[in-house]
């Protein structure tokens, strides 16, 4: 017995047990006082009638004898007549008086202002009794005797014992019901918690298919749903990670294979065919640049994850960076029989940004548009200023993105189409770069219709001070 069950037994069941014990004790005291007070009231009521009966104290013994003989409650109590010397001379039982019994109430009544006193205790026989003695005085306030009433408390004690026993049984029944209901309640908590713990260990060990059975539709059930959802998300993230590793490995292998192949070709051919050498060197340089871009993209993502990406902010003409990005992609588009249509505006307000990073974003978006477009596909690019923001739209008529993939398309490692080359982190990096420029990157797409990417970046207010340039020696990509 440990954990929640142990704490409950100590904190809750123990407190309930103490409360019930105190209530039983209080009830015992109250019920005993009730019975004893009732008996005292009966005795006191009987003793008050002596004032009228013994109105002629000179004939005390004779009057007392008549009173005892005619006493109606002989079956309920014993009546004793005590003379002025303190000796019991008459009893209602008919037996010889026992003057060896202690009578504390008689001694106390002799000095009491009320002329009576009561006592309860045990006789020499062990019987528990209550006694009340009232002293009789004559006209000169001289004691002429006393009348003592004695009632056995055994019947009252028996009733008190029965009442307390009933209350104790009720208390035990309550404890039993509380224990049974609480045991059921604790099991309804402990069992799911144990299963949650077991399943969480499996998830921690890499079993992302492990799921928790939902027992109840309450907070525990919500926790089960949350952990099951977490396992699903971790499984999806793990799959994306593995796909990313596989994709990056393939992306790295392709240029490395080309570099190695052409390097071996040039080595074997020597310098005899200058055209072959020039072609090989060109391909090696091109694939090395491609390899460098892949590695740089991974490094950028690592910097974003560690919140270490640093931008060199400057007042720039964003159209110049967009023009250069488009120019760098035109030859590729021509070779793949695809078309880039650019509606270049005359002039736009300057923005505060990192020219290299913004160019990286434009190249990435245009590269994706060409990558997912078929031959003779068209990529439309436009730029305009709306209020104090520059809005750049890059739209293609390619394969589009399925609706179920669209909400996750900017997540790390996520690729909607696994058949197309790419690491799956380009959009995540681009989105973070635009966010660091206080802009937004929104993607709208319809499957088999096309995709539209809208980039919004704030302009520099005309009346603002020119921004302070960063130290040119500060590296933009610190390691």
Q: In short, what is this structure?
A:
With 479 residues, the protein is an alpha+beta fold. The protein has helices at residues 3-48, 50-53, 60-69, 104-111, 154-204, 219-269, 274-305, 318-335, 355-371, 426-436, and strands at residues 78-83, 88-91, 116-122, 128-137, 143-152, 314-316, 339-343, 351-353, 378-386, 389-396, 440-446, 450-458. Helices cover 52% and strands 17% of the residues.
Word description of this protein:
With 479 residues, the chain is α+β, with helices and mostly antiparallel strands. The protein folds into three domains: 3-158, PAS domain (Beta-Lactamase); 219-305, Orthogonal Bundle (Helix Hairpins); 314-458, Heat Shock Protein 90 (2-Layer Sandwich), CATH 3.30.565. 52% of the residues lie in helices and 17% in strands. The chain has ten helices and twelve strands. A five-stranded antiparallel beta sheet has the order 2-1-5-4-3, sandwiched between helices. A five-stranded mixed beta sheet has the order 7-9-10-12-11. Strand 9 and strand 10 form a beta hairpin. Helix 1 packs antiparallel against helix 5 (154-204), helix 7 (274-305) crosses helix 10 and helix 8 runs parallel beside helix 9. The longest helix is centred in the middle third of the chain and has 51 residues, at 154-204. The radius of gyration is 52 Å and the shape is rod-shaped. Mean pLDDT is 82; it is low at 465-479.
């Amino acid at each position: 017995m440990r954990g929640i069950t142990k704490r409950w037994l100590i904190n809750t069941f123990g407190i309930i047990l103490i409360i019930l014990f105190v209530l039983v004790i209080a009830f015992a005291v109250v019920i005993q006082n009730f019975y004893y007070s009732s008996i005292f009231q009966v005795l006191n009521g009987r003793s008050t009638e002596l004032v009228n009966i013994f109105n002629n104290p000179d004939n005390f013994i004779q009057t007392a004898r008549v009173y005892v003989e005619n006493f109606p409650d002989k079956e309920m109590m014993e009546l004793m007549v005590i003379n002025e010397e303190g000796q019991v001379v008459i009893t209602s039982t008919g037996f010889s008086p026992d003057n060896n019994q202690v009578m504390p109430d008689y001694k106390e009544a002799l000095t009491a202002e009320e002329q009576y006193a009561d006592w309860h205790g045990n006789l020499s026989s062990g019987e528990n009794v209550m006694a009340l003695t009232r002293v009789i005085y004559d006209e000169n306030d001289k004691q002429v005797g006393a009348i003592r009433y004695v009632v056995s408390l055994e019947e009252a004690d028996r009733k008190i014992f029965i009442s307390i026993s009933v209350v104790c049984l009720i208390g035990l029944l309550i404890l039993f019901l509380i224990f049974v209901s609480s045991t059921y309640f604790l099991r309804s908590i402990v069992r799911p918690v144990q299963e949650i713990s077991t399943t969480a260990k499996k998830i921690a060990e890499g079993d992302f298919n492990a799921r928790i059975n939902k027992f109840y539709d309450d907070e525990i059930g919500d926790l089960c749903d949350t952990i099951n959802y977490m396992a699903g998300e971790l499984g999806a993230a793990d799959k994306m990670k593995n796909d990313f590793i596989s994709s990056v490995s393939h992306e790295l292998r392709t240029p490395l294979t080309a570099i190695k192949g052409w390097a071996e070709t040039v080595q074997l051919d020597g310098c005899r065919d200058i055209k072959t050498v020039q072609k090989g060197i060109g391909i090696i340089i091109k694939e090395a640049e491609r390899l460098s871009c892949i590695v740089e993209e991974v490094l950028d993502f690592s910097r974003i994850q560690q919140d270490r990406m640093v931008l060199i902010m400057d007042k720039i003409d964003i159209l110049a960076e967009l023009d250069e990005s488009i120019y760098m992609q035109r030859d590729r588009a021509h070779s793949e029989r695809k078309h880039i249509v650019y509606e270049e505006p005359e002039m736009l307000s300057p923005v505060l940004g990192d020219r290299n990073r913004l160019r990286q974003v434009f190249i990435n978006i245009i590269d994706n548009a060409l990558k997912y477009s078929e031959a003779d596909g068209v990529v439309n690019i436009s730029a305009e200023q709306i209020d104090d923001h520059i809005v750049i739209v890059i739209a293609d008529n390619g394969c589009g993105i399925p609706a179920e993939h669209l909400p996750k398309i900017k997540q790390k490692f996520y690729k909607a189409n696994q058949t197309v080359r790419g690491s799956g982190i380009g959009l995540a990096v681009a989105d973070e770069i635009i966010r660091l420029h206080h802009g937004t990157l929104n993607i709208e797409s319809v499957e088999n219709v096309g995709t539209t990417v809208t980039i919004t970046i704030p302009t520099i207010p005309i009346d603002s001070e020119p921004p302070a340039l960063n130290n040119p020696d500060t590296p933009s990509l610190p390691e």
